[in-house]
Amino acid sequence: MTPPQTYDAVVVGAGPNGLVAANHLVDAGWSVLLLESQPEVGGAVRSDRDVHPDFVHDTFSAFYPLAVASSAVTSLRLEEHGLAWSHAPAVLGHPRSDGSWALQHRDREVTASLMDADHAGDGAAWLELCAQWDRVGDQLVEGLVSPFPPVRAGLGLLGRLPAAGGLGFVKTLLTPAAQLGRSRFGGDAPRLLLAGNAGHADIPLDAPGSGLMALLLTMLGQTVGFPVPVGGAGALTAAMARRFVSLGGEIRTGAEVTGIDVESGRAVGVRLADGTRIGAGNAVVADVTAPALYGGLVAPEHLPARVVRGMRSFELDPSTIKVDWALDGPVPWAQAPAYAPGTFHVADSVEQMTEAFSQIAARAIPADPFLLCGQMTTSDPTRSPEGTESVWAYTHMPQHSVRDAGDGGIRGVWDRDDCERMADRMQARLERLAPGFGSRVLARRVLGPHEMEARNANLVGGSINGGTAQLHQELVFRPVPGLGRPETGIRGLYLGSSSAHPGGGVHGAAGRNAARAALAHTRLGRILPQSRRR
Ligand SMILES: Cc1cc2nc3c(=O)[nH]c(=O)nc-3n(C[C@H](O)[C@H](O)[C@H](O)COP(=O)(O)OP(=O)(O)OC[C@H]3O[C@@H](n4cnc5c(N)ncnc54)[C@H](O)[C@@H]3O)c2cc1C
Fold first, then answer.
1. I need a surface site. Which of 15, 24, 187, 286 has the fewest CB within 10 A?
2. Chain centre to alpha carbon of residue 141
3. Is the shortest distance between the CB of 10 and ligand 1 below 6 Å?
4. Mean pLDDT per 10-residue run, the chain (534 residues)?
5. By the 8 A CB rule, do 164 and 136 touch?
6. CB distance 343 to ligand 1 below 6 Å
7. DSSP one-letter string for 228-253
């Protein structure tokens, strides 16, 4: 038998984390092969023209504050590889049922004056929160995108904490999002904006962790904005792929990895669906979900007992329904916002958002789903012809529903009928805020959990974050207790997906952490005698 072709590293999966890992490995002079099962790279960072040929829609993710704030991505200098960013006039908006808006402008002074007009004193409170964040925000972000434990960023954070308010600010970070808004602001504009941003993760708004998520996204909105790649989300991952190939990396698409070969406790290569074997001299980095890796690509008998035990309680994040619309005009808002936002959230109140989260926890399909939405042509005029709008909304569902808390018509099996009914429920929410929305629809696409998983195997059951972001599965508990790092317990195999710390979002940190661990172990392996290599 001919020996398999061998690379220093094989990366499985070309989502943003796989692409970031591949880039960092090729930067170190390694030969790297990136294998992707789909016909194109990008994972959940892709765009297409399937809804309407004149409209670009982001198939999954759309806004990238985490990418522009994360050194794992910025260090790649993707602008030199064709990436350009675009911003909407306002970062974020929340239309209220009376037609008025809660708005976050990129300029904090403008945001503050809008809030003051709503409720005197909230502007000053907003600026104070921004000032506290300025003192520690960059260290906090660096800590989040560093391998756990983040020693250097942690020390930096500790040094600056007194200036940000000391333990008082730590308490702010730990306060649940719903309470955070109530405790610092009198009006509902900042409360809605904070709670809506917390809703990007699946942490209940009355649980610790939701406040940190709220602050992180809201303050990034205030510092770096919510940028989108010019031309579509896929332009971001295309730039990553171009950079990688320009440095000698190799990409194979349509190449599904079906197994990872382990010999004497070490990953030595991968097997493809067509039977091809490829060797990995130093490392295999897996940009796949933890359940797909542990007991899937790697047979259970090769896994340490604690990983097998830990995976029994691994928890996915909720399912997702996403709707894309091509509109023949702008969104006909009942009352136009003072500044047009890229991202907008739909919920009548923070309480209604909390209720939707509770219904999901009770395995019910929400009656009034909380919507996360984007006006993409407003954010980047290249997305559709002038005067039209490329719009999307997504919402979360239980992974396994036991009832419909709405009109009872949705069964939770997510066949075409369920998906279209849910899309109607979501569209009806937009119609109330923007009368005539439906009459502007040229085309609509609904992606339910099955359609998502078919386009990206990591979106298991429509989960978007590689596992719940709740505290019990974060940090040292991600993906199983005791790991919290990319090491898998098998030498030469690293988990580099959103199932690893620090979780979902396009920051590339899990990919860079995996690449760094692989490089460090290989260097160490060359120094240590064979008997001490672990
Ligand atoms: C609807 C939606 C909206 C989102 N919105 C945002 C947003 O606006 N901003 C943000 O920051 N984040 C957002 N996210 C989250 C973000 O997109 C993900 O956290 C991120 O893409 C995770 O990156 P990843 O590289 O770990 O995995 P993925 O992007 O999921 O990529 C994994 C890749 O691995 C491939 N793969 C899997 N198994 C195999 C195999 N066996 N062999 C070969 N290839 C394989 C898949 O095909 C895929 O290409 C959103 C996600 C979704 C689904």
1. 187
2. 15
3. no
4. 85 98 98 98 98 98 97 98 98 98 97 97 97 92 85 80 85 90 96 95 89 95 98 98 98 98 96 97 97 95 91 92 98 98 98 96 97 98 98 97 93 97 98 98 98 98 93 84 86 96 95 97 70 40
5. yes
6. no
7. EETT-THHHHHHHHHHHHHTT-EEES
From 10, 23, 37, 261, mutation site for ligand 1 pocket: most ligand atoms within 8 A of C-beta:
37
**Separation CA 412–CA 487 (nearest Å):** 37
Is the CB–ligand 1 distance for residue 19 below 6 Å?
A: no
SS3 349: coil
The tokens describing 51, both together, are 């809804």
Strands of 16-64 (E only): list them. Answer: 32-35, 47-48, 57-58
Which residue in the block uniquely carries the two structure tokens 């067509």?
A: 274
What are the CA-CA distances from residue 119 to residues 91, 190, 222, 340 (Å)? 20, 10, 20, 21
Query: Of ligand 1's atoms, which has the minimum distance to the CA of residue 465?
Result: 19
Q: Is 319 in the pocket of ligand 1 (CB under 6 A)?
A: no
d(CA 266, CA 492): 6
pTM of the model: 0.96
Which of 458, 495, 497, 501 is the best mutation target for the ligand 1 pocket, counting ligand atoms within 8 Å of the beta carbon and taking the most? 458
Q: Is 227 exposed, middle or buried (CB count within 10 Å of its CB: 0-12, 13-18, 19+)?
A: buried
Whether residue 519 has its Cβ less than 6 Å from ligand 1: no
- In whole angstroms, give the CA distance from residue 357 to residue 363: 10
Residue 12 φ/ψ, nearest 5 degrees: -100, 110
